[in-house]
């Protein structure tokens, strides 16, 4: 009695699962495009130990078309026209598994498939609904600043499913961006959930434009006297000879080394700091599009000033110190055989260091932001600069002030002298009679002296004559 009941229950189960060669329920399979789809066809009741024939077919319209077939005599068949890269591994047959493997599945492969396994006495039929999920990006070519959308297709599309969007393994709440930037490049995808199955399909997004720097927030640090290269690297699609460099707020043309895709300064000078912009034209979906990138150059320099006789202050000047959080002072000393050793002398948030005039050698200022080292600038303190207070700007000013003072004194003295001469002349002019008197007296005296001389000579001559 009990035995018969159980047998009846088994029969019911068999009917539900679609066995016994009769009615069968469709099984759902969801796969991502490009992957290998394994269409299940398992004989769970192990009835078809030695199948005489296995036949996989696909529904096209109202009829079924063979995909893979193995006949009673062991011959295998595949369609000649539009064959799928499908196979049914024979070594699984012993385990009652007649799965069909389809490689590199595409959206067009979605649809209804049927597996028929024929035994000696019975026949098993299974129907599988294969749904293929595909993620794609439109338009095909995305240029920086333009609009992009990720699409998710399911073929055949079921009535009820849930869809979520992903960017680089993280869920996002939108599938499009109005103004795309290089940061949006990467893997975009969707996750489809349907009847307890979940499948993720991805598409990679390349953004045409300038790949380095990624955005306008780049800051470059360079010490005065060093060289620096400002990068402006384009993705493919750049139209040749369209790259233009400009320094914002400057009318002075940039040197030849700025003609190429990366700008190069051979020797950074005080005054080179500022914002530089490169731009170029790329081929987009709707013709030519201009893309541009701005970057900031910050210049670093160490200067010194003397305080008193023995102390020297070194100052680490950064043209735009907003991001700097720490300064580090190092001293490089040279040992025998030209060995160099660097030692950290001070690390603080101050850009100054007070040293002694005897601390001759190379001084290096390293500067950091909260993420790490940004750059360095160096200063050579020698005997002369220690005595003179270096080539600091304050030292220069002192020299200038002294020079000007000296010049003023000189001019003052000349003016004073001229004034005195002028005064004397004026005083004489006030008494013209006196002048003529003086003059008369002087000429009379001269006359008298001359005539006295003459008479003396005449006398002498007379005397000579008389004596002879
Ligand atoms: C769709 O699926 C959800 C669960 O995934 C279910 O709650 C809902 O009732 C379904 N809707 C229809 C119309 O089948
Ligand atoms: C780009 O410039 C180079 C020289 O700088 C020249 O040889 C080349 O013909 C130019 N190409 C175009 C497309 O104008
Ligand atoms: C450095 O100099 C010493 C002698 O002063 C010598 O013995 C040694 O080999 C030198 N080392 C190097 C690396 O040249
Ligand atoms: C200073 O910076 C230059 C270039 O970035 C680097 O080559 C050099 O090693 C740095 N020097 C120190 C002492 O950090």
TrEMBL record:
Q: Is Transmembrane a UniProt keyword of this protein?
A: yes
What are the record's GO terms for cellular component?
external side of plasma membrane; membrane raft
Transmembrane segments annotated in the record for this chain: 398-419
What are the record keywords, sorted?
Membrane, Signal, Transmembrane, Transmembrane helix
- Give the UniProt record's GO annotations in the biological process aspect: interleukin-15-mediated signaling pathway; positive regulation of ERK1 and ERK2 cascade; T cell activation
SMART domains membership:
IG, IGc2
Pfam families hit by this protein:
Ig_2, V-set
* Ranges of residues in domain Ig-like: 31-126, 130-206, 213-278, 308-366
**A single MF term (Gene Ontology):** protein tyrosine kinase binding
Signal sequence: where?
1-24
Q: What is this protein called?
A: Ig-like domain-containing protein
């Amino acid at each position: 009695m009990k035995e018969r009941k159980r047998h009846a229950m088994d029969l019911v189960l068999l009917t539900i699962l679609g066995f016994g060669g009769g009615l069968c329920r469709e099984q759902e399979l969801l796969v991502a495009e490009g992957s290998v789809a394994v269409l299940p066809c398992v004989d769970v009741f192990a009835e078809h130990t030695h199948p005489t024939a296995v036949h996989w077919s696909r529904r096209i319209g109202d009829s079924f078309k063979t995909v893979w077939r193995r006949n009673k005599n062991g011959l295998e068949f595949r369609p000649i026209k539009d064959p799928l890269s499908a196979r049914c591994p024979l070594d699984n047959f012993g385990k009652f598994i007649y799965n069909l493997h389809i490689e590199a599945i595409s959206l067009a492969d979605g649809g209804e498939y049927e597996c028929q396994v024929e035994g000696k006495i019975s026949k098993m039929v299974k129907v599988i609904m294969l749904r293929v999920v595909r993620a794609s990006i439109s338009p095909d070519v995305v240029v920086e600043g333009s609009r992009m959308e990720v699409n998710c297709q399911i073929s055949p599309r079921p009535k009820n499913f849930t869809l979520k969007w992903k960017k680089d393994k993280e869920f996002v709440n939108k599938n499009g961006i109005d103004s795309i930037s290089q940061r949006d490049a990467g893997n975009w995808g969707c996750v489809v959930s349907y009847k307890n199955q979940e499948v993720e399909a991805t598409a990679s997004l390349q953004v045409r434009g300038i790949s380095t720097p990624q955005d306008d927030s780049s800051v470059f640090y360079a010490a005065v006297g060093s060289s620096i290269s400002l990068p402006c690297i384009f993705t493919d699609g750049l139209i040749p000879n369209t790259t233009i460099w400009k320094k914002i707020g400057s009318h002075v043309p940039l040197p030849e080394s700025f003609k190429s895709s990366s700008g190069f300064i051979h020797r950074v000078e005080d005054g080179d700091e500022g914002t530089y912009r490169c731009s170029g034209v790329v081929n987009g979906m709707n013709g030519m599009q201009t893309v541009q990138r701005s970057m900031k150059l910050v210049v670093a320099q160490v200067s010194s000033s003397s305080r008193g006789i023995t102390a020297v202050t070194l100052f680490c000047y950064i043209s735009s110190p907003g991001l700097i959080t720490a300064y580090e002072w190092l001293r490089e000393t040279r040992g025998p055989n030209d060995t160099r050793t660097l030692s950290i002398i001070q690390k603080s948030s101050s850009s100054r260091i007070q040293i002694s005039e005897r601390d001759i050698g190379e001084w290096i200022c390293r500067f950091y932001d909260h993420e790490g080292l940004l750059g360095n600038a160096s200063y050579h303190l020698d005997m002369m600069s220690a005595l003179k207070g270096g080539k600091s700007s304050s030292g220069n000013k002192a020299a200038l002030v002294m020079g000007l003072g000296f010049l003023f004194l000189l001019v003052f003295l000349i003016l004073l002298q001229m004034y005195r001469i002028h005064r004397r002349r004026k005083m004489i002019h006030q008494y013209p009679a006196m002048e003529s008197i003086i003059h008369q007296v002087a000429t009379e005296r001269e006359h008298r002296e001359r005539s006295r001389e003459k008479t003396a000579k005449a006398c002498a001559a007379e005397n000579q004559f008389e004596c002879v």
